[in-house]
Amino acid sequence: MAGIKTKNNPIVQKIPEITSEVKKDLLVGSIFSKDDVLQRKWLDLQLEFLNKNTQSFDHVCVLYSEQKSEHFDSKTETFNIKPFTSNENSKAHVFGLNQLAEIFRSKRQMYNNFLFLDSDAFPVRSDWQLVLNEKMHDYSMALALRTEDLETRLHASILYAKKQSLENLSFVITNSGLDLLGCPETDICVKTSEDHKSFPLIRSNRLNLHPALCGIYYDCFYHHCCGSGRAYNLRSKDYWDIMCEKDIDVSDYTEKLMCDPVLFVNKLRGI
What we know:
CATH architecture: Alpha-Beta Complex
Distance between the termini: 43 Å
Number of domains: 1
Radius of gyration: 18 Å
Number of strands: 12
Largest sheet: 7 strands, mixed
Low-confidence stretches: 1-7
CATH class: Alpha Beta
């Protein structure tokens, strides 16, 4: 994979592949934008749900901090990288995704499957891997499809991948075509070989607190959306203005989730 350059930011670091027998079934990885109280809470919540709902896994993260974090280092394998100076979140995130893919490739002999998760995403049912593996006989990846945000592209907030799909997997910011309103859709896109088919994970909420936030996907994963603290600026916010305010405070939903995560998620799932 070629290094991806952005002004004043590093190149994706190549990592030698580790020769080893399979260690565990799954390696999970996430990207955290900084080492602060909110990001630490998201890490803890993600690990809580992973430990509850996943049998055999290890966890790694890309952390945008040049300083070591006692909190992160005590809970996960942390790969520190220099924070971006740009205000463009997508450029920072696509860089982190490509670095995470490189970490996964270096460890692909140690695991059978790999899971990319946004920092505010996690599995919500104990048999999620069994469910997906049974559905993915003809597919090498499963990804979120966010039609609620008018998207037609597959979204890397949740990406479950068999090891053979890692070889040519990369992430780029590009025009993926038209969204559901016929407008150009330029954002982070997943690139892989044409022979790798993807299984879509579609929003399955039985209760919706918001049309685009707090999503359950295929009854297997939760994704909060905008959980890192960034402003609510989804492409669909004008579309949904008949139902909710355009300038909502996502932290209100974050506080409700953090107060009782299991109850919050179960209500969305209808259980």
